[in-house]
Recover the amino acids of this structure.
């Protein structure tokens, strides 16, 4: 478009009613400045946050103990210990969440694109939108009423995962849906013409074509749920020891580790929560960037 | 960024169910897909239903008026709780965040679609999208421990010169609704930008070229062609951003919830939103006797975000109907 935007070239003579051309040029310049400034304003927080977290958190991460030890037996005032318990907790919870949310999300997307017509499809699509907007704290309260109040179970890591499933499903549905829609209809029709049943067509033709796009959606969804704190506050009280059993006892996670240490005003705790914040950001950003990179290898493109 | 735009359409593509052979494999697979779809519908209804079923007993035991009484005393001897203060802080902080974020987001979206050189546009868009990847707890600790000191001077100045308005009345508390709004604005910026970007990019190039051919400057072209085309999308994007801001929990909890103090209408007071109230009292969830009040507050939050998101969806659907 840049060739068409030579705004100063307007040969028509200004009628007496029109404002002079210089005024229009000034407005145009002002708009350009405003638009560039806005972009800078938007990028400042990102750079600032990354800088803060790296400069304050890197110290903790450089200690090898950070990656191998837990906080068991370490009080807020003593230096030492690591985040292994929280890292492993976050990873386990993310894995369980993905195992539950991905099949439901992908099948829902398949329904919306390949099967759904009429009122039910409209309802499903609408509900996915609503689910996208459900605040994480509401998801946590819902699982609380289900898991603790109704079934009478204890608060455990698995309950946290169930709340996270609620938050991950819409992300997976939407990204999968977009990818499935991009698969050309000719591929499906060619498959049908060869007498392949519909379900095999979807499994062997449609899904593989859209595969990398679906993986991207899953990774972005994981990045979202790993950083969620509210469900952990309600359903997953923190722990300082390593616990790998999602059905028993409390399991640590990086967000709750940050939250537990942040109101301490001693240096040891300060280092730990910024360290945990940096670890969390690294995990989330890695997933995010991996998702973007994979989406480059997409067989279908928009 | 389809994942944070959260809306989609049902294209009437002619793939039809005539492709199904009715064999067992097809029936099972179709059943799984339909079942998942129904599961999602049931899930959302269950969220509302379960919250309602737990909130009603608490509301019946409530000795105060839930909607109008400004008290929150929940203990074993009795429950008196009302939501007007929570509602006020929730709505005011989210609206403020929207007022800050929407103009910037629209300008950023214009930058990405109309101004940035083609080669820079997509990395630049990715940078803005990355803002959405930062976990909310990191926003919270950054906002409170790092960003806050830089805003106190400005807040004091505002309170000193505009303190006669109720909204900007001093004294300035430690963590303020004002600061929370700024951080919320940063958090919802990528959502609003992403959707605005999508709709601006869809402006028919005939409209844009027509404007330019008539001698419009770039800004005039944007004002007469791009912005009118994108307005419904921007409104819908703002509503989705608003929905996110209303339900944001941890960042708000860290910033305003540290010392709520006495309720004031000023932006420079601390306070509690629905979400931060619930999260602040997460210790109560160890025993389920007192949680009814918080679940009632959560139900209100669910209804609020439901309405906002549904409205956003209706607006974007209507735009689709007229844009073809």
């Amino acid at each position: 478009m840049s060739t068409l935007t030579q705004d100063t070239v307007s040969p028509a003579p200004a009628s007496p009613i029109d404002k002079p051309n210089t005024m229009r040029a000034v407005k145009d310049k002002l708009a350009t400045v405003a638009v560039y400034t806005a972009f800078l304003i938007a990028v400042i927080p990102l750079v600032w946050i990354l800088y803060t977290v790296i400069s304050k958190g890197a110290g903790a991460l450089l200690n090898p103990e950070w990656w191998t030890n837990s906080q068991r037996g370490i009080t807020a005032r003593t230096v030492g210990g690591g985040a292994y318990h929280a890292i492993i907790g976050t990873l386990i919870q993310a894995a369980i969440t993905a195992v539950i949310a991905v099949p439901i999300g992908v099948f829902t997307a398949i329904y919306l694109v390949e099967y759904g017509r009429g009122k039910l499809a409209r309802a499903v699509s609408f509900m996915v939108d609503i689910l996208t907007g459900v605040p994480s704290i509401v998801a946590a309260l819902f699982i609380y009423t289900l898991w603790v109040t109704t079934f009478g179970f204890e608060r455990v890591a698995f309950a946290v995962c169930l709340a996270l499933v609620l938050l991950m499903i819409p992300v997976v549905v939407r990204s999968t849906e977009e990818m499935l829609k991009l698969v050309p209809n000719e591929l499906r029709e060619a498959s049908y013409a060869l007498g392949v049943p519909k379900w095999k067509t979807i499994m062997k033709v449609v899904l593989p074509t859209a595969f990398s796009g679906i993986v991207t959606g899953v990774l972005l969804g994981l990045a979202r749920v790993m950083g969620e704190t509210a469900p952990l506050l309600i359903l997953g009280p923190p722990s300082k020891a390593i616990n790998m059993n999602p059905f028993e006892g409390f399991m640590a996670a990086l967000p709750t580790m940050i939250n537990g240490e942040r109101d301490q005003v001693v240096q040891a705790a300060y280092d730990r929560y910024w360290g945990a914040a940096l670890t969390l950001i690294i995990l989330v950003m890695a997933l995010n960037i991996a998702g973007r990179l994979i989406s480059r290898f997409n067989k279908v493109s928009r | 960024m389809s994942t944070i735009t959260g809306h989609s359409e049902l294209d009437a593509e002619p793939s039809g169910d005539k492709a199904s052979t009715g064999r067992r494999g097809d029936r099972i697979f179709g059943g799984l897909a339909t079942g998942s779809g129904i599961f999602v519908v049931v899930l959302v209804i269950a969220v509302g239903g379960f919250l309602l079923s737990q909130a009603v007993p608490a509301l019946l035991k409530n000795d105060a008026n839930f909607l109008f009484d400004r008290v929150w005393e929940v203990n074993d001897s009795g429950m008196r709780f009302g939501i007007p203060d929570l509602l006020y802080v929730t709505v005011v902080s989210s609206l403020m965040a929207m007022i800050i974020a929407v103009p910037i987001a629209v300008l950023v979206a214009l930058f990405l679609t109309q101004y940035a050189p083609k080669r820079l546009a997509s990395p630049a868009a990715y940078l803005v999208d990355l803002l959405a990847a930062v976990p909310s707890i990191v926003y919270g600790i950054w906002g409170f421990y790092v960003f806050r000191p830089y805003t106190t001077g400005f807040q004091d100045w505002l309170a000193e010169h505009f303190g006669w308005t109720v909204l900007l009345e001093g004294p300035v508390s430690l963590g303020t609704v004002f600061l929370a709004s700024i951080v919320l604005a940063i958090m919802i910026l990528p959502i609003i930008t992403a959707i605005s970007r999508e709709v601006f990019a869809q402006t028919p190039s005939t409209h844009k070229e027509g404007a330019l051919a008539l001698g419009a400057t770039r800004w005039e072209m944007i004002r007469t062609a791009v912005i009118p085309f994108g307005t419904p999308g921007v409104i819908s994007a703002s509503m989705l951003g608003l929905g996110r801001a209303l339900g944001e929990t941890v960042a708000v909890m860290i910033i305003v919830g540290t010392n709520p103090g006495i309720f004031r209408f000023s932006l420079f007071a601390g306070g509690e939103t629905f979400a931060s109230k619930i999260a602040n009292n997460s210790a109560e969830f160890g025993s389920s006797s007192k949680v009814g009040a918080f679940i009632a507050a959560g139900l209100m939050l669910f209804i609020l975000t439901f309405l906002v998101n549904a409205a956003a969806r209706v607006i974007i659907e209507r735009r689709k109907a007229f844009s073809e």
Notes: The two ends of chain B are 23 Å apart (CA to CA). The domain at 78-323 of chain B is CATH 1.10.3720.10 (MetI-like fold). The first strand of chain B starts at residue 72 and ends at 75. The mean pLDDT of chain B is 85.
